[in-house]
UniProtKB/TrEMBL annotation:
GO terms for molecular function: phosphatase activity; translation initiation factor activity. It comes from Amycolatopsis azurea DSM 43854. Residues 175-387 form the PPM-type phosphatase domain. Signal peptide: none annotated. InterPro entries: Bact_Sigma-Reg (IPR052016), PPM-type-like_dom_sf (IPR036457), PPM-type_phosphatase-like_dom (IPR001932). The keyword Protein biosynthesis applies. The keyword Protein biosynthesis applies. It comes from the Bacteria. This is Stage II sporulation E family protein.
């Protein structure tokens, strides 16, 4: 366990014991993590008294005012090397996940929900102001100033949220993995297209690719909900074929408005076999080492979450040879010119043309070429998977 993980666990345990709300805990954990990453492990102390949780971080390096102003949660007090935050305690302890990654995802969900609520409050307040007379113009100006302050504060949170939502590739043995991620809205680093990948207890690598309907914060929350649910079910050992349908059933009452296409991949490092379960998602592209291309379609089409009769009806199974390349993606890659079929044909040609490049370059190169002309802007995720069993130790 790294120093940063241990530090986050201590902060979370203190917040949980004091009943600090999840969104406040998330901002504090993020602020402490950012400070810990800038130097040697700092000293942490916590005190709960008079309805307040006080968290003090003592660093071996001074923290200037400029650095403090960039933190997602500003400290209430402290000198150059010691910073203290005071947070309101709750009515009682609150649960927090012991696993660092799960806790981080829960905190990201809380931040997204809070940002959603703040955005709704701002819209309602603007609507009320619009119905008043001109005598409240000064209040409107003040509101715009508050909006600007909120945008700056959210920008800091979103930059960290962006990194949290783009996990680096897990260890995958003979499989080389690379990803390109780009939201459609440049002022928001998140969108409805998200991916998740992790190693299962049996050593196989699981990949989830989700395209939630919509854009911005709400679609991000929906996509996060889907990836988190699938990860939980996969780690519990539910059959690969059933994951999309079971996730849809689980979320039907919790998020009745949620609609998302889903593609699942399961990579077996021992055999080179790849399995795909598809729920209304664009078909994977296979480029063999010999240069042949194929769109990997299931015998029976599956349906995504929120669609009628959701689930993956049949699986696609392939055993990859040395050098074979698979590209999975969201529809933003092939719909930029509004013609999906033409986009698929262009992608097949581009994947064949660039398959000889290093795996790490392929997602960015494909996105650059495919999105050279954009008539329909959309979030885009591109993931490259290459099987290189004879180069594991190279």
């Amino acid at each position: 366990m790294t120093d940063a993980v241990r530090l986050r666990r201590r902060v979370r345990e203190a917040c949980a014991a004091a009943g600090v709300p999840a969104d406040q805990r998330a901002r504090l954990v993020l602020a402490v993590t950012l400070l810990a990453e800038s130097g040697p492990a700092p000293e942490l102390s916590t005190v709960t008294a008079d309805g307040k949780l006080s968290v003090t971080l003592k660093s071996s390096l001074p923290v200037g005012q400029g650095r403090r102003n960039t933190l997602p949660l500003l400290p209430a007090a402290g000198d150059g090397e010691s910073l203290t935050w005071h947070l309101d305690a709750g009515a009682g302890p609150v649960p927090v996940a012991a696993d660092d990654e799960v806790a981080t995802r829960d905190e990201m969900l809380a931040l997204v929900a809070r940002a959603d609520a703040v955005a709704k409050e701002q819209r309602e307040l603007k609507h009320e102001l619009a119905e008043t007379n001109s005598g409240v113009l000064a209040m409107y100006v003040e509101l715009e100033e508050r909006d600007e302050q909120l945008r700056k504060a959210h920008a800091v949170i979103f930059r960290e949220l962006e990194d949290a939502l783009r996990p680096p590739p897990p260890p995958a043995g003979p499989f080389e993995l690379a990803v390109h991620y780009a939201p459609s809205q440049q002022d928001s680093p998140t969108g409805g297209d998200l991916y998740d990948w992790f190693v299962l207890p049996d050593g196989c690598v699981h990949i989830t690719l989700v395209d939630a309907v919509g854009h911005g914060v709400t679609s991000t929350r929906h996509a996060l909900t889907v990836t988190h649910a699938i990860r939980t079910l996969a780690l519990e050992g539910h059959p690969f074929r059933d994951l999309i349908g079971r996730t849809a059933h689980t979320l039907a009452t919790i998020e009745p408005e949620l609609m998302a296409t889903v593609l699942l991949a399961r990579l077996d490092p021992a055999t080179g076999e790849v399995l795909f379960a598809n729920g209304s998602h664009p078909r994977p592209v296979l480029v063999t080492a010999a240069g042949d291309t194929e769109l990997l379609a299931a015998a029976t089409s599956g349906r995504g979450i929120g669609f009628p009769d959701p689930g993956s009806k049949s699986l696609v199974r392939r055993t990859l040879a040395d050098g074979d390349l698979v590209v999975i993606y969201t529809d933003g890659l092939v719909e930029s010119r509004k013609d999906f079929q033409e986009g698929e044909e262009r992608l097949l040609a581009a994947a064949r043309r660039h398959a000889g490049r290093p795996t790490g370059q392929i997602p960015d190169v494909l996105a650059t070429e495919m999105l050279e002309i954009v008539l329909h802007a959309d979030d885009t995720v591109v993931i490259a998977i290459r099987h290189r069993p004879y180069y594991r130790d190279a």
